Amino acid sequence: MSKQYKARQPVGRFSAGDIVGGLSDSQIQDLLQRGVIEASTKAKPAVSAKTEKEVKTNGE
Fold first, then answer.
1. pLDDT reported for residue 58
2. Any domain includes 10
């Protein structure tokens, strides 16, 4: 799985907050070093874990 990057400020066709894609490795490294983009911590939507409820079967 490849990393995803988020624009911290407008860059090319991307606005601040957009997921940046379609760039070469050298472009990504340059933008990372300049602080224009950052590694996205949320690569895919979080799946909420449901907790199981305790079920009492003895009538209590």
1. 75
2. yes
3-41 per-residue burial string, b: 16 or more CB within 10 A, e: under 16: eebbbeeebeebeeeeebeebeeeebeebeeeebbeeee
Q: What is the pLDDT of residue 4?
A: 92
Is 26 within a domain?
yes
Q: What pLDDT is stored for residue 40 in this prediction?
A: 86
Q: What's the number of domains the chain is made of? A: 1
The answer as to whether 44 is a domain residue is no
Residues of the chain falling short of pLDDT 70: 1, 42-55, 59-60
Print the domain residue range for 16: 5-39
Is the sign of the CA dihedral 50, 51, 52, 56 positive or negative? negative
Structure tokens given for 43 = 């690569």
